[in-house]
Amino acid sequence: MLKNFPVAMFLMILIIFLPLKASSQTAGVSNEECFGCHEDKSLSRKSATGEEILLFVEGKEFNRSVHKNVRCIYCHDDLKDIKDFPHKESLKKVECKTCHEKEFASFAQSVHGREFIKGDRNVPGCATCHGKHYILCADDPECSTSPAKQIKTCTKCHEDQRIVKKYNLPGIEFIKSYEKSIHGRAITEKGLIVSAVCSDCHGAHEIKPADDPKSLKNKANIPKVCARCHDSVYSQYVESIHGKAILSGIKDSPVCTDCHGEHTIAASSEPSSKVAPKNIPETCSVCHSDVKLTEKYGIPGARYKTYLDSYHGMASKFGEVTVANCASCHGYHNILPSSDKNSLINKDNLPKTCGKCHPGATGKFAIGKIHVEAKKESSLGKYYVRQFYIWFISILIVCFVSYVALELYGYFRRKR
Amino acid sequence: MNNRKESFVIRFNLTFRLQHVLLFTSMIILSLTGFALMYHDTSWGEMLINLEGGFKMRGRIHRVFAVVLILTVTWHFFQVLFTEKFHREFLKFKPRLKDFKDLMMTMKYYLKLSNEKARFEKFNFIQKFQYWGVITGTFFMGATGIILWFKDFSMAVMPKWVMDVTLVVHGYEGTLAFLVLFLWHQYNAHLNPDVFPMDMTWINGRMLLKDLKERHPLEYEELMKETKIDSAQ
């Protein structure tokens, strides 16, 4: 028996596959037969609403598509056994899920899929994004879902005033701002197809609203999404105070997009970037000057004001870029609290951190606060000197004014 | 306006007049550039910074005129310390108990509590106060300004809180100087009914003998004594 095993196997395989092969070869009409009629450009039918629907399918284009080896009657399966031509006019809708089961399952859970299944035809189904007869492989630059073409495919609806309004979608300006972002420009100007396009951040079939915990746009998932490309940044971020907080479920902590923006992401060298040196103080202060947040987490507040009062802050406000901003001292992806010995603003590391710009800054220099408010509790010296001057100047002014008043009084009284 | 034939004394010689011009030009520019920074968060502060050619240029202008001021004061000091003629003049600025008595007397006189007017020497208590005010002010401003200017050196030798205090002192001392000069000195040199609209002494250095007799009687008497001696010889 065992001696004959290979032979038996061979026979079994033959038995399984032969009929399949034979049937695909023989049963039903071949694609060429279909094109025989459908390559006629004038072929059309009237829909139920009276619109004219072209029934033209170009064989040459179809044979370039990813489905070139799939027979027409596989998708149009109600024509499988048809023998008489021309066949009936209205056919069943093509069901992609017959083959693409996994994709359909994920689509069915998505914002698009849920509405599509309910029958809303303003919402994209498979063909809206992928096309019908001429679907190309996503690697093909001509494919409607390829990085270069995808933006157009999505904006077909997302930049359509009527649809945006009807479904209360994010504004067109916001969507469009992507084109000017570093990701958008990498694609359109430099042809870098590895850059992030819509589906890289939002997902493709599985697009979900941001409040869904499974959504790629959900705050907890954003760092991971960006990490798909920016992995080394992610490894720094998760070690930082912000990253650790997010990992432990503190949703108030910033993720990538809170500092970098989403559609508007720009290189720090762009003046418009949220992380451009000039704009960093404002970006950080969204949280660090927020009374509610600073009190909730017991972190020092008024950071923006005290920064702006410093020479660094003033110079930055007036457009100097060779001046320290938040990130120059605190770091950016690797921000740590001063109590951490790896923190750039740890007392032991301050001479080095300040020394980046001020060679010769010593450990002695680091005695004293950096963000100084002239408050009694935080900066005694500054507080008393200021109080002294305020009193001294006030008293002096009172003396001057009274002396002048007295002199004028005397002068005019004696004159009379 | 005044009769040119009237006799006068030169009270404010050419070098001092020149120093006075350098002093007030540099101080006006230092105030404008300094307050621009101190009040950078107000609209007029911002406007001043922009007028001064931006943030960097503002700083450059401030430092250039700080040097002008420091050099002027140094020049003045060398002069009053090392030349006999000016040293004698300088000694007349020495504060005395008489200055306080003069102040009291003047107030009584204005209040009509007494009819006796204080009799001043070459410099009265107001002028002495102003002179020493400018000297101490310039010293403080110069010292704190240099600490802030050479920040990298300062950072190496002193803690940051000292620099913070230095900055506060520089700002308020500047405010003080500004107020003294622009309220008090402007009043005395322009608005005071005796000199209105302007005491011309800062331009021509002169004071009419009749004014001298009235405002600085002790100096006048001294002068008369000297001239008598001179004419007797």
At CATH level 2, the architecture of chain B is Up-down Bundle
Poorly predicted parts of chain A? 21-25
Shape field of chain A: elongated
Strand order of the largest sheet of chain B: 1-2
- Principal-axes shape call of chain B: elongated
| Overall average residue pLDDT of chain A | 86
Query: Which protein chains make the most extensive interface, counting residues with beta carbons within 8 Å of the other chain's beta carbons?
Result: A-B, 44 and 39 residues
CATH class of chain B: Mainly Alpha
Order of helices and strands of chain B: EHHHHHHHHHEHH
> Which structural class fits the helix and strand makeup of chain B?
mainly alpha
Q: Total number of helical segments of chain B?
A: 11
The CATH superfamily of chain B is identified as Transmembrane di-heme cytochromes, Chain C
Number of domains of chain B: 1
Helix content of chain A: 40-55%
- How much strand content do the residues of chain B show? under 5%
Please report which band the strand proportion of chain A falls in: under 5%, 5-15%, 15-25%, 25-35%, 35-45% or over 45%. under 5%
List the keywords.
heterodimer; A: 416 residues; mainly alpha; two-stranded antiparallel sheet; 23 helices; B: 233 residues; Fumarate Reductase Cytochrome B subunit; 11 helices; 3% strand; elongated
Detailed description of the structure:
The complex is a heterodimer of chains A (416) and B (233). Chain A is mainly alpha-helical and 416 residues long. In chain A, helix 5 crosses helix 6 and helix 19 packs across helix 20. Chain B is an all-alpha fold and 233 residues long. Chain B has one domain: Up-down Bundle (Fumarate Reductase Cytochrome B subunit), CATH 1.20.950.20. Chain B has eleven helices and two strands; from the N terminus they run E-H-H-H-H-H-H-H-H-H-E-H-H. Chain B has a two-stranded antiparallel sheet. In chain B, helix 6 runs antiparallel to helix 8 and helix 10 crosses helix 11. Chain B starts with 7 loop residues before the first strand and ends with a helix. Chain A: One of its GO terms (molecular function) is oxidoreductase activity.
